[in-house]
Design brief:
Length: 220
Protein backbone atom coordinates (compact mmCIF):
# COMPACT_ATOMS: atom_id res chain seq x y z
CA UNK A 1 0.00 0.00 0.00
CA UNK A 2 1.47 3.34 -1.08
CA UNK A 3 1.29 6.32 1.26
CA UNK A 4 0.27 8.63 -1.58
CA UNK A 5 -2.05 7.46 -4.32
CA UNK A 6 -5.18 8.39 -6.25
CA UNK A 7 -7.31 7.85 -3.12
CA UNK A 8 -5.22 10.17 -0.92
CA UNK A 9 -7.13 13.45 -1.53
CA UNK A 10 -10.47 11.80 -0.79
CA UNK A 11 -9.07 10.05 2.27
CA UNK A 12 -7.64 13.31 3.65
CA UNK A 13 -10.99 15.01 3.08
CA UNK A 14 -12.87 12.41 5.11
CA UNK A 15 -10.13 12.36 7.76
CA UNK A 16 -10.34 16.14 8.23
CA UNK A 17 -14.14 15.97 8.45
CA UNK A 18 -13.90 13.17 11.00
CA UNK A 19 -11.54 15.20 13.18
CA UNK A 20 -13.84 18.25 13.04
CA UNK A 21 -16.95 16.24 13.87
CA UNK A 22 -15.08 14.44 16.65
CA UNK A 23 -14.17 17.77 18.23
CA UNK A 24 -17.78 18.96 17.99
CA UNK A 25 -19.18 15.67 19.29
CA UNK A 26 -16.99 15.83 22.39
CA UNK A 27 -16.85 19.59 22.89
CA UNK A 28 -18.29 21.02 26.13
CA UNK A 29 -17.90 19.54 28.69
CA UNK A 30 -14.69 17.95 27.31
CA UNK A 31 -13.24 20.57 24.91
CA UNK A 32 -14.33 23.74 26.70
CA UNK A 33 -13.03 26.08 24.00
CA UNK A 34 -15.51 24.62 21.49
CA UNK A 35 -19.18 25.33 22.18
CA UNK A 36 -22.49 26.21 20.54
CA UNK A 37 -23.63 29.05 22.77
CA UNK A 38 -22.21 31.12 25.62
CA UNK A 39 -24.53 33.13 27.85
CA UNK A 40 -24.09 35.31 30.92
CA UNK A 41 -26.22 34.61 34.00
CA UNK A 42 -26.69 35.50 37.64
CA UNK A 43 -27.15 32.91 40.40
CA UNK A 44 -27.14 33.48 44.17
CA UNK A 45 -25.76 36.97 43.70
CA UNK A 46 -22.88 35.72 41.54
CA UNK A 47 -22.29 36.49 37.90
CA UNK A 48 -20.98 33.86 35.54
CA UNK A 49 -21.20 32.36 32.06
CA UNK A 50 -22.63 29.12 30.76
CA UNK A 51 -21.45 27.33 27.63
CA UNK A 52 -23.50 24.68 25.83
CA UNK A 53 -22.01 21.67 24.06
CA UNK A 54 -23.15 18.39 22.54
CA UNK A 55 -23.03 16.34 25.73
CA UNK A 56 -23.54 18.95 28.42
CA UNK A 57 -22.79 22.43 29.68
CA UNK A 58 -20.26 24.24 31.85
CA UNK A 59 -20.89 26.95 34.44
CA UNK A 60 -17.98 29.34 34.84
CA UNK A 61 -17.69 31.57 37.89
CA UNK A 62 -14.89 33.83 39.02
CA UNK A 63 -13.62 31.14 41.39
CA UNK A 64 -13.77 28.19 38.99
CA UNK A 65 -15.69 26.15 36.43
CA UNK A 66 -18.25 23.41 37.02
CA UNK A 67 -19.42 21.12 34.23
CA UNK A 68 -22.34 18.74 33.94
CA UNK A 69 -21.93 15.00 33.61
CA UNK A 70 -21.48 14.09 29.92
CA UNK A 71 -24.71 12.61 28.55
CA UNK A 72 -26.98 12.66 25.54
CA UNK A 73 -29.86 14.98 26.35
CA UNK A 74 -29.23 17.18 29.38
CA UNK A 75 -31.68 19.12 31.52
CA UNK A 76 -31.26 22.72 32.60
CA UNK A 77 -33.45 25.51 34.02
CA UNK A 78 -32.49 28.27 31.59
CA UNK A 79 -35.18 30.64 32.90
CA UNK A 80 -33.69 30.75 36.37
CA UNK A 81 -30.14 31.16 35.13
CA UNK A 82 -30.83 34.13 32.86
CA UNK A 83 -33.21 35.72 35.34
CA UNK A 84 -36.35 35.50 33.19
CA UNK A 85 -39.40 35.44 35.44
CA UNK A 86 -42.03 36.11 32.79
CA UNK A 87 -44.57 33.27 33.30
CA UNK A 88 -46.01 33.67 29.81
CA UNK A 89 -42.85 32.73 27.94
CA UNK A 90 -41.10 30.31 30.27
CA UNK A 91 -39.09 27.50 28.62
CA UNK A 92 -40.06 24.10 30.09
CA UNK A 93 -37.11 22.07 31.34
CA UNK A 94 -38.42 18.94 29.63
CA UNK A 95 -38.43 20.83 26.32
CA UNK A 96 -34.79 21.75 26.83
CA UNK A 97 -33.95 18.11 27.47
CA UNK A 98 -35.72 16.85 24.36
CA UNK A 99 -34.15 19.57 22.21
CA UNK A 100 -30.67 18.66 23.38
CA UNK A 101 -31.31 15.04 22.41
CA UNK A 102 -31.19 16.19 18.78
CA UNK A 103 -27.55 17.15 19.26
CA UNK A 104 -26.77 13.43 18.97
CA UNK A 105 -26.88 14.04 15.20
CA UNK A 106 -23.31 15.31 15.48
CA UNK A 107 -22.22 12.00 16.97
CA UNK A 108 -24.04 10.04 14.24
CA UNK A 109 -22.33 12.15 11.56
CA UNK A 110 -18.99 11.58 13.31
CA UNK A 111 -19.40 7.78 13.34
CA UNK A 112 -20.36 7.75 9.64
CA UNK A 113 -17.41 9.99 8.77
CA UNK A 114 -15.13 7.65 10.70
CA UNK A 115 -16.47 4.71 8.68
CA UNK A 116 -15.92 6.67 5.47
CA UNK A 117 -12.32 7.31 6.53
CA UNK A 118 -11.83 3.57 7.09
CA UNK A 119 -13.02 2.93 3.53
CA UNK A 120 -10.64 5.68 2.42
CA UNK A 121 -7.75 3.64 3.83
CA UNK A 122 -9.09 0.60 1.98
CA UNK A 123 -9.14 2.67 -1.21
CA UNK A 124 -5.33 2.78 -1.14
CA UNK A 125 -5.36 -1.00 -1.54
CA UNK A 126 -8.43 -1.46 -3.71
CA UNK A 127 -9.14 1.93 -5.22
CA UNK A 128 -12.49 1.35 -6.95
CA UNK A 129 -14.26 -0.49 -4.12
CA UNK A 130 -12.81 1.64 -1.33
CA UNK A 131 -13.46 4.95 -3.06
CA UNK A 132 -17.03 4.00 -3.96
CA UNK A 133 -17.91 2.91 -0.44
CA UNK A 134 -16.15 5.90 1.09
CA UNK A 135 -18.02 8.29 -1.19
CA UNK A 136 -21.39 6.67 -0.46
CA UNK A 137 -20.90 6.72 3.31
CA UNK A 138 -19.65 10.31 3.09
CA UNK A 139 -22.91 11.20 1.37
CA UNK A 140 -24.90 9.83 4.30
CA UNK A 141 -22.60 11.54 6.79
CA UNK A 142 -22.86 14.88 4.99
CA UNK A 143 -26.65 14.65 5.06
CA UNK A 144 -26.66 14.03 8.80
CA UNK A 145 -24.10 16.82 9.32
CA UNK A 146 -26.30 19.21 7.33
CA UNK A 147 -29.31 18.32 9.48
CA UNK A 148 -27.20 18.86 12.60
CA UNK A 149 -26.01 22.25 11.33
CA UNK A 150 -29.54 23.34 10.46
CA UNK A 151 -30.71 22.32 13.92
CA UNK A 152 -27.80 24.18 15.51
CA UNK A 153 -28.70 27.38 13.68
CA UNK A 154 -32.39 27.09 14.53
CA UNK A 155 -31.96 26.15 18.19
CA UNK A 156 -29.03 28.26 19.31
CA UNK A 157 -29.89 31.34 17.27
CA UNK A 158 -33.36 31.28 18.81
CA UNK A 159 -31.84 30.74 22.27
CA UNK A 160 -29.41 33.62 21.69
CA UNK A 161 -32.23 35.96 20.68
CA UNK A 162 -34.35 34.78 23.60
CA UNK A 163 -31.60 35.36 26.16
CA UNK A 164 -30.58 38.73 24.72
CA UNK A 165 -34.14 39.98 25.15
CA UNK A 166 -33.86 39.45 28.90
CA UNK A 167 -32.71 42.55 30.79
CA UNK A 168 -29.72 40.82 32.36
CA UNK A 169 -29.14 38.41 29.48
CA UNK A 170 -26.18 38.35 27.12
CA UNK A 171 -25.41 35.50 24.70
CA UNK A 172 -23.12 34.79 21.76
CA UNK A 173 -22.95 31.81 19.42
CA UNK A 174 -19.81 29.68 19.40
CA UNK A 175 -17.57 27.93 16.90
CA UNK A 176 -19.02 24.41 17.11
CA UNK A 177 -21.70 24.99 14.50
CA UNK A 178 -19.17 26.41 12.02
CA UNK A 179 -16.92 23.39 12.49
CA UNK A 180 -19.96 21.27 11.67
CA UNK A 181 -20.51 23.30 8.50
CA UNK A 182 -16.87 22.84 7.46
CA UNK A 183 -17.13 19.08 8.04
CA UNK A 184 -20.32 18.98 5.95
CA UNK A 185 -18.59 20.69 3.01
CA UNK A 186 -15.61 18.33 3.19
CA UNK A 187 -17.89 15.30 3.20
CA UNK A 188 -20.07 16.73 0.44
CA UNK A 189 -17.13 17.06 -1.96
CA UNK A 190 -15.45 13.78 -1.04
CA UNK A 191 -16.38 12.30 -4.41
CA UNK A 192 -14.78 15.28 -6.15
CA UNK A 193 -11.57 14.77 -4.15
CA UNK A 194 -11.46 11.11 -5.15
CA UNK A 195 -12.04 12.06 -8.79
CA UNK A 196 -9.29 14.67 -8.58
CA UNK A 197 -6.86 12.10 -7.19
CA UNK A 198 -7.81 9.58 -9.84
CA UNK A 199 -7.14 12.10 -12.60
CA UNK A 200 -4.06 13.85 -11.24
CA UNK A 201 -2.25 11.08 -9.33
CA UNK A 202 -1.74 8.16 -11.74
CA UNK A 203 -1.81 4.81 -9.99
CA UNK A 204 1.31 2.71 -10.28
CA UNK A 205 3.47 5.42 -11.85
CA UNK A 206 6.27 4.85 -9.37
CA UNK A 207 5.73 1.09 -9.65
CA UNK A 208 6.08 1.31 -13.43
CA UNK A 209 9.35 3.26 -13.18
CA UNK A 210 10.72 0.68 -10.75
CA UNK A 211 9.69 -2.15 -13.06
CA UNK A 212 11.35 -0.46 -16.04
CA UNK A 213 14.59 -0.11 -14.11
CA UNK A 214 14.52 -3.77 -13.08
CA UNK A 215 13.68 -4.83 -16.63
CA UNK A 216 16.60 -2.79 -17.96
CA UNK A 217 18.99 -4.47 -15.54
CA UNK A 218 17.77 -7.90 -16.59
CA UNK A 219 18.16 -6.95 -20.24
CA UNK A 220 21.82 -6.22 -19.71
Amino acid sequence: MRLIGPATPGFLSTLAATVLLGIVSFCVPYFKSVFFLKAGFQANGQEGTITFGTLGFCLEFADGTTCSKPQVGYQLDINQLVGDNNPQIQIPQVAVRWLTYALVLHIVAFVLALLSTAFGILAHVCEVIGACFSTCVSGFSSTVALLAFAFDIALFSAAKSRINHVDSGSATTGNAMWLTLAAFLLLLFTGCFYAFGSCCIPEGSSRKKRSDVEYGKLGH
